[in-house]
Amino acid sequence: MLVIPFPALSLIMSDTCINAEKFLSDLVADLGLKLKVSAEMTDEGCMLDLHGEDSHFAHAENGELLDAFETLLFQIFGRQLDREHRFIVDADGYRQTRKKELQAMARFAADQVRKNGRPFTFGVLNSTERRIIHLTLQKEPDLATESVGDGRDRRLQVRLQ
């Protein structure tokens, strides 16, 4: 059995993040967008930040272009990342702002469920957004979160245990 020491594993992930940064830089240039890409490894994975004159395009339409970039990076480089890491593409702090909004929505839903005793079902959220709400409420002993439905109709439900 081959055992890879932790520092070597870290180096592989750094190479993956560097390769993803190069790929995304080339892609945005080929698309004619005036954007620079910077990357860093975080606890969550490879964080790629887009900045420049055209950054507003990246987070328009609820961040659909950011989501598309993440999906593309995962399809190309995902096998090179540890299972607990992922690619996170951001522009102008959009992801952090959205994360705070989702956490506030999770707390609101929790309050409604406790007050009314009825399940609270969110509208359509992508998998990353559902994950943020799951993680926000995971330590609430009286609540459970569950994704219900299939495909694009998948919703997140908060209910009492």
Could you give the topology of this structure?
Layout: H1 6-30, E1 36-41, E2 45-51, H2 55-58, H3 60-77, E3 86-91, H4 94-116, E4 120-121, H5 127-137, E5 143-148, E6 155-160
Parallel strand pairs: 2-3
Antiparallel strand pairs: 1-2, 4-6, 5-6
Keywords for this structure?
single chain; 161 residues; alpha+beta; three-stranded mixed β-sheet; 5 helices; 6 strands; elongated; disordered N terminus
Structure summary:
By secondary structure, this protein is an alpha+beta fold.
Task: Explain what you see.
The chain has 161 residues and is an alpha+beta fold. The protein is built from 5 helices and 6 strands. The chain has helices spanning 6-30, 55-58, 60-77, 94-116, 127-137; strands at residues 36-41, 45-51, 86-91, 120-121, 143-148, 155-160. Strand 1 (36-41) and strand 2 form a beta hairpin. The model is unreliable at 1-13 (pLDDT under 50).
User: How large a portion of the residues is in β-strands, by DSSP E?
Assistant: 15-25%
Residue share in helix: 40-55%
What is the general shape? elongated
Oligomer: single chain
Task: Round the Cα radius of gyration to an integer and report it.
Answer: 18 Å
Largest sheet: 3 strands, mixed
Mean pLDDT: 89
Number of helices: 5
Q: Order the strands across the largest sheet as they lie in space.
A: 1-2-3
Secondary-structure-based class equals alpha+beta
Q: Tell me how many strands there are.
A: 6
Q: Could you tell me how far the N terminus lies from the C terminus, measured between alpha carbons in angstroms?
A: 43 Å
- Helix and strand sequence: HEEHHEHEHEE
Q: Low-confidence segments, ≥5 residues, pLDDT <50?
A: 1-13
